[in-house]
Design goal:
The protein is an alpha+beta fold. It has one domain. The protein contains eleven helices and nine strands. A seven-stranded mixed β-sheet has the order 3-4-2-1-5-9-8, sandwiched between helices. Belongs to the antibiotic N-acetyltransferase family.
């Protein structure tokens, strides 16, 4: 059986992959695929910090679905229920609170970063991102409700900061940055999103849950794996491969430039998605 990986071992692998001091890096990860570690997600978080140094900033998605009633997860949950049962279920759904609401389906490493002292989380009730490092406040500040992953979101800031993407034990289907390419596609389809948020307290002092809705791009990640497979064969203007690939712990990791990847995604969408946005849920 493989001995648990230590933080210095994982940091060595991350440096060998190409992470450098001062990097701003958007991390998607699977602790299970990295393999056993000495301190669970804390080992990975410490390795990331070592790899980018005190001057680097680590960003993770801390999305939430349990408070949304326009998400695929919600539609699956209420499938086959009566109107009365759906209403009863909605009454149990939590409101989003940036300070306390856990992320959903983003992995143990993302949750560890979210709860790290000094980390900052953006306030979007569906697609918050959490940043840990010197640029955390700048990245997470002012996340508009109607711009989940577009130009005015933390993702748009990461594009302008020339950030990098680290897929740590996960595939391109998890690559959030591709959504920015959807916003930049010609005439992207628009849809309505609905969710609950926690805002203030009621007369009894209990947290007050409110309904919020907004319209934005109809995001669709179903072809991201195909986009990523194509991207792995692409090269930068300097002749280097866009995607660097290598082992980190017991898993495979990919490191790629966020801005170049988004630009290439826009071109890929133009060719592979039909007019009006192509694949839709």
């Amino acid at each position: 059986m493989t001995a648990p990986y230590t933080s210095p071992q994982l940091a060595h692998d991350l440096r060998a992959l190409g992470l450098r001091s001062g990097d701003v890096v958007l991390v998607h990860s699977s602790l299970r695929r990295i393999g056993p570690t000495t301190r669970g997600p804390g080992t990975v978080a410490d390795a990331l910090r070592t790899a980018v140094g005190a001057s680097g900033t680590i960003v993770v998605p801390t999305f939430t679905a349990p408070n949304s009633f326009s998400s695929p997860a919600y539609r699956e949950r209420v499938r086959g229920l009566t109107a009365e049962e759906i209403e009863a279920y909605r009454r149990t759904m939590p409101g989003f609170d940036a300070a306390t609401t856990p992320s959903a389906g983003m992995g143990a490493v993302a949750e560890r970063v979210r709860t790290t002292p000094g980390a900052r989380r953006s306030g979007h009730p569906q697609t918050s991102l959490t940043a840990w490092g010197p640029l955390a406040d700048f990245i997470t500040r002012d996340h508009p409700l109607d711009c989940p992953l577009g130009e005015d979101s933390p993702l748009g800031k990461l594009y302008r900061l020339d950030a990098r993407i680290l897929l740590l034990g996960v595939g391109f289907a998890s690559c959030t940055a591709f959504h920015l390419g959807e916003y930049r596609s010609p005439d992207p389809p628009i849809r309505r999103y609905d969710c609950f948020v926690t805002e203030g307290t009621g007369a009894d002092g209990a947290p007050r849950r409110r309904h919020r809705w907004f319209e934005s791009v109809d995001l669709d990640d179903r072809d991201f794996a195909r986009l990523g497979a194509w991207l792995e064969d692409e090269h930068t203007d300097t002749g280097e491969r866009v995607v660097r690939r290598g082992p980190v712990g017991g898993g495979i990791a990919r490191l790629l430039p966020l801005a170049d990847s988004v630009d290439l995604a826009v071109e890929w969408f133009k060719e592979h998605r039909t007019a009006g946005g192509g694949q839709r849920r």
